[in-house]
Amino acid sequence: MYLRYVLPAIERGEFRHGTLAELPQGLKDYYERHWRQIRAIDEDMWVDYRQPVICFLAMAQEPVTVWQIASWAKLKPARVLSAIRDWREFLDEDPVAGVMRYRIYHQSFQDFLAAKDEARDLSEAESPQ
Question: Domain coordinates of the chain in residue numbers?
């Protein structure tokens, strides 16, 4: 899993100095790095839709549609799609009857999200299922 995420990131130029010290120490560090990068782009967008979308995806027990997430998070579908693009590398797409459904790609990312305070807070406030 580490190679699945880190090698493409190296190819995209995300590690600028080319040193081993720059590489994340395991998947958890890679996930944390991505979490911080997405959050740092714009704190308002993070709070408004990026963080809720990934947290609702983490809570979902099965692949879900953009419209389901939009309903749970009380967001416009366009916002949900935008957040899905931000988290795309961590998601699987599952087309069912012409409608795309999304789910967390791997259990290690699911576990990472479950350990985040923000995800726990959202889970306690409102579970989608």
Answer: 2-125
The pTM assigned to this predicted structure is: 0.77
Phi, psi of 104 (to 5 degrees): -65, 135
The CATH topology of domain 2-125 is Arc Repressor Mutant, subunit A (1.10.10)
Rounded to an integer, what distance in angstroms lies between the CA atom of residue 56 and that of residue 103?
10
Q: Say how many C-beta atoms besides its own lie within 10 A of residue 69's C-beta.
A: 25
Locate 44 and state its tokens. Answer: 């308002």
Predicted pLDDT at 17: 66
The residue ranges of DSSP E strands in the chain, in sequence order, are 64-65, 91-96, 99-104
Q: Tell the burial category of 32 from Cβ atoms under 10 Å away from its Cβ (0-12, 13-18, 19+).
A: middle
